[in-house]
UniProtKB/TrEMBL annotation:
Residues 104-130 are annotated as: Disordered. This is Uncharacterized protein. Residues 112-122 have a biased composition (Gly residues). It comes from Staphylotrichum tortipilum. It comes from the Eukaryota.
């Protein structure tokens, strides 16, 4: 259950105003409306001049909407620790030179459905040499949210699939829920949707790509503070990432899907919760 109707939202007034809003925002997200492409370019330039570390999670020129990520400690742990767990397994297969961390590289969506725009993911990775070139889209994107609402995270997820023309293969959402003291993990993939009633938006997506985002896994991690030390329960099994989707080829001898089991997810939880205030 989410206890707010929307993320903190302000209307664009001046290039300097978003910086003041970011400094006064307690959470990890700020939404700015009425941002024209020219104003977005000016904000982007000002961020570089000031050497500020916040990220432009998603900018859509058609709706003039800018979603800004404010990298709090918890926010960063939510995605970085998950990506490190995945990379560790890839390294153990001997593929450390075949997988690159793209981090918050800016991806441009010019000419794609949904209008020109850009996005900076929290963590992302690409196979090499298949995607080891400038401007190539990652196959894996991880997006985190502490105060950001789940429905906004899902909009971020949809942007990645749509803007990349489904060059992005897997998007993982990691959502912290302070009220339930839990972390929700969602794994989304692009796939042809089973036959059923088509909404207008679904029909448009399938017409453009033949694919649409499908929720493949939902995992919940909860903390029990009645034990010492705290214990963590993982509900609905291991997180499984398809080797073929990550590397754009079939696995060879010694290669396999990336599987984060209960033990790995409990270790992940320990690292996330250590940054939370009591």
């Amino acid at each position: 259950m989410e206890f707010a109707d929307e993320d903190p939202t302000v209307k664009f007034t001046t290039v300097q105003a978003p910086f003041r809003e970011i400094d006064s925002t307690a959470g990890d997200v700020l939404v700015v409306t009425d941002v024209s492409p020219q104003y977005f370019a000016e904000i982007e330039h000002e961020r570089d001049v000031r050497r500020r570390k916040f990220r432009f999670r998603r900018y859509q020129s058609d709706s003039e909407l800018l979603v800004i990520t404010i990298p709090t400690d918890v926010h960063e742990e939510l995605h970085l620790q998950l990506f490190r767990q995945c990379s560790r397994q890839i390294d153990n297969m001997g593929l450390q030179n075949a997988w690159d961390f793209k981090g918050t590289t800016t991806q441009r969506s010019q000419g794609h459905p949904g209008g020109d725009g850009s996005g900076e993911g929290d963590s992302s990775g690409v196979p090499v040499p298949e995607r080891g070139r400038q401007g190539a889209w990652p196959t894996l994107v991880i997006e985190a949210g502490a105060s950001e609402l789940l429905h906004q995270l899902r909009e971020d997820m949809r942007w990645w699939f749509l803007a990349s023309n489904h060059d992005v293969k897997i998007v993982i959402l990691a959502k912290f829920d302070r009220h339930r003291d839990s972390v929700l993990l969602e794994k989304w993939e692009g796939a042809a949707h089973p036959q059923g009633i088509l909404t207008r938006s679904r029909a448009a997506l399938q017409q453009q790509h033949g694919l649409e985002p499908i929720l493949r896994q939902t995992i919940t991690i909860t903390r029990d503070t009645a034990t010492y030390p705290d214990s963590y329960s993982v509900h609905r099994g291991a997180l499984v990432l398809s080797f073929q989707l990550l590397f754009l080829r079939y696995p060879r001898d010694g290669e396999r899907d990336v599987v984060l089991g209960v033990e790995e997810l409990q270790e992940y939880a320990v690292r996330v919760w250590r940054y939370l205030d009591d």
